[in-house]
# Entry
Amino acid sequence: MSHRYRAVQWTRHKAVYDGVIAGACVAFVAVFIGIGMAVHRPPSEVSVPILLMRALGTLAIVLLHVVLAIGPLSRLWPRTTFLLANRRHLGVATFLVALLHAAVVLGFYGGFGVQNPVLAVLVRPDGSVGFEFPGFLALLVLFVLAATSHDIWLAFLGHALWKWVHMAAYGAYALVVAHVALGVLAGKPSIFLPALLLAGVLVLGGLHLAAGRRERHRDARGPSPHARAEDGWIDIGDPASIPDQRARVLCIGGGHRVAIFRVGDRLTALSNVCAHQGGPLGEGQVMDGCVTCPWHGYQYRPHDGQSPPPYSERVPTYELRVRGGRVQVCPTPNAPGTPTTPIAIPSPTSPRP
Amino acid sequence: MTPPQPIYVLYRPLPATLLALVLAVAGSLAGLAMGVAAAAAWGQPDPGPGVWDTANAATLTGHVAAHPYPMLLPHDGSAGVLLVGVGKVGPPGAVLALVGHGARVTGYPLERGGLKMLEVQEATADHWPSPAPGPAVGLGVHAIATEILDSKCYLGAMKPGHGPGHKACAILCIAGGIPPMIAWTDAAGRTHHALVTGPDGGPMPEAWRPRVADRVVVRGRLTSRDGWLWMAADAPDP
Ligand code: FES
# Structure
């Protein structure tokens, strides 16, 4: 449901989710340190602060991979859309883990000396910077993303700009890869570490390419030329094959998508783009009589695209009509929140207007 | 037509038909993450055999020398023991005041490959007769491909105490007065270590500091004295 601004609108689900994430993070660090101590035994043991530093750094990278993989995964396998719920909590967790990593680095590599720890780690005696600097920049980006993850910022910046700002997560990822490649990998570790990082880059890149291809393919398809009436209205295909309380998404050209929803024997059409973060409304479901976005559950009335009171979000609606026993949609959207009249699914025997 | 799967919405109970998938995905992600943790922890490079015994303080007696790095020359004639302070600093003023005199020094020992260091907690004058200065044996001019290390971390204070990941720490240590050293392996596979001084026997040239922990070639006169090798390094090539 759309928002009223509070720091976090806690629900039992969010509490469970955050508890699981925190528990998994602690388990990750414990496994890393436990195996690190068991494998590297005295006198060739790794110092515990360095084990902690490495465990936290590795964990931050793993979390960043998961955060960035969720988007394309949910595009490729819509059943995994549930992963999008609370993704921002995972993003904030990534920042906090990276911050802890940085704190341990500053404490042990930058501390106990005759210089400011931050400068000691970031700036070389000749004024140049080392592999720590991209890591520091990545931390700054993650901070900005965590700080602006709240819906207050989304409302303030608007969903397009907010989304654009949050694309900086990919910049943070590139900086992290540079940080690890220049620092850890230059230290000639075993083949494990470069192989792990390369696998992460390839999996993430592969998922994004596959998801991008699929979306481009869908957009490029558009309506077939036969589906367009002379006045430009577009045939929506067989309406009876749309499952009840669900939608069919139609690419109407120009990268625009319309979601044709069926409620009983009635059809309505809304923009496929959620007013919250641009989620795919057509992959949602009608619940409590409202179209419900699969990403975070914002709701819109099917006939006018307005969130039910007291909420105020709106999406554009589209007109539908029946011609020659076929249902057609007008390719020009109405202003967000414009009421439309749901149309009845024509039966194969209904008179042709 | 098969009915589509219900969607999951944050503020509603999880549909029963999704529970198995949620558990499977969460379990796989957690398993994968733990696998990465295990592999990354396993794959860490060997940090070397340095030992820093912070549980057992040792007391040593001998003569304090500084060539230019403060070192205790034990009265029994064994190899010199480098003296450093707590943290990334050289030894405290009490040690410096004893240069050229007999001393009793207590601290936490560090050792790697027979090279010894003491992190000094306490130093007092002692009246052992000064040993005759050890003979300095010239070993000629050498160009050694190596990495400049801070001796305290390398001998066991930080493990690993070398490599590019440790660069900032090594620079900070050397700036604070920890003696710089180099380590290299000869054709027979033996590892050698030498403390690095300037060409005149003073502290290492400042110009080397940004290049600490990098792969470099250090050129200079190699000398053996007090159980240590000393490299009187020329300034780095620009
Ligand atoms: S509810 Fe967040 S994008 Fe739709």
In short: Residues 137-233 of chain B form one domain. Residues 24 and 30 of chain B are 10 Å apart (CA to CA). The pocket of FE2/S2 (inorganic) cluster is lined by residues A 274, 276-279, 293, 295-298 (CB under 6 Å). Chain B touches chain A through 58 residues (CB under 8 Å).
